[in-house]
Write a structure and sequence with these properties.
Elements (H helix, E strand, L loop, with lengths): L2 H7 L4 H5 L5 H24 L6 H18 L1 H8 L13 H12 L15 H13 L6 H22 L11 H15 L7
């Protein structure tokens, strides 16, 4: 990936892009930040606290994530796919990425305590740092459950978009719905259906 190649693809002279971005990495960073912020806006709207039950908010937020990813697979791949060789994301991408994690994790605030898990000191510190960074007032087991759920949800979308369900779970609608329900149970929000 180079700015010259991008300029050729857009039928521009490379100097036109260099007026806006000094390097390939600067352009990639701008695209990453834009994708995270766009996805976070979609998820924030779906996860917003209102009269819906926590489990309904969870379902609708997960569906919004999958819809966004399906409509914009290249942007999803840019932020959750394979790393770009030679590119190292700068600190400026952290806050937009955190917005996405927070939008899905915020629903865990409505969950039952995740139980007493044995969590080592180093992981406990990392979970506390993550909860603090996401501005979530949750204990370490609940944060671990939220991160685990997020990872599995992103994982199944990645597999689906990558064509790994061809011939089995195609379309993956029912598989995804079942996974979302399973994660709601693991997060302790499934019992809040009333």
């Amino acid at each position: 990936m180079s700015l010259r190649a991008i300029a050729r693809e857009l039928n521009l002279v490379s100097s036109a892009i260099y007026r806006y971005f000094a390097s390939r990495d600067e352009l990639i960073t701008a695209l990453i930040i834009d994708a995270y912020n766009d996805l976070a806006d979609v998820l924030d709207a779906a996860a917003e606290r209102d009269r819906r039950t926590p489990v309904r908010r969870w379902r609708e937020t997960c569906l919004a994530l999958r819809s966004w990813a399906s409509e914009q697979p290249h942007r999803f791949g840019l932020i959750f796919g394979t790393s770009i060789p030679g590119y190292h994301a700068p600190q400026t991408t952290v806050a937009p990425a955190a917005r996405v994690y927070r939008a899905l994790s915020i629903i865990s605030l409505d969950s039952e305590p995740a139980g007493d898990l044995t969590i080592g000191r180093e992981l406990r510190g990392q979970l506390t740092t993550a909860a603090t960074g996401l501005e979530l007032d949750v204990d370490e087991p609940t944060m671990l459950a939220a991160i685990s759920a997020f990872s599995r949800i992103i994982g199944v979308i990645t597999l689906e978009l990558g064509g790994h369900f061809v011939g089995t779970f195609e379309p993956a609608d029912h598989l995804y719905a079942a996974l979302v329900e399973r994660e709601a149970k693991l997060l302790g929000i499934a019992g809040h259906e009333r």
